[in-house]
Amino acid sequence: MALKFTNREVDGVAVVALDGRIVLGEESNALREKVKGLVAEGKKKIVLNMDNVTFIDSAGLGTLVAAHHSAKSHGTALKLCHLGSKIQEVLQITKLLTVFDVYNTDAEALTSFEQ
User: What sign has the CA pseudo-torsion 26, 40, 99, 104?
Assistant: First the structure.
């Protein structure tokens, strides 16, 4: 099943809702290209809404880390929101919760840019 993206912009912040699985192959590549594209467009604030992400594997985690690193190196802030309990648990076990800015809702993530 392909990973789907729904884009919207709120006060200059690109909010991307992800729908599907972030796994090795087409899905990971699609996410990588999506973030690269937003950074190339000059977006400086990106929120990835993970509400409808059903599964993430190690390659998917690697893609998230690479996207975070790529965004940061271009002066772009990348934040995550709406992590399901499974994904939250995976990020906690791998200590990646310390790498990402994680918020419960996209509203909280958007507000965090104002601070």
Answer: negative
Instruction: List the beta strands (DSSP E) in the chain.
Output: 4-10, 13-22, 45-56, 77-81, 101-103
Dmax over Cα atoms in the chain, in whole Å?
Answer: 38
The Cβ-side half-sphere exposure at 16, using a 13 Å CA radius, reads 24
Burial class (CB in 10 A: 0-12, 13-18, 19+), 100: middle
**pTM above 0.85?**
yes
pLDDT digits (tens, 9 = 90+) for 3-23: 999 999 999 999 999 999 999
For helices 58-73 and 26-40, give the axis angle rounded to 10 degrees: 10
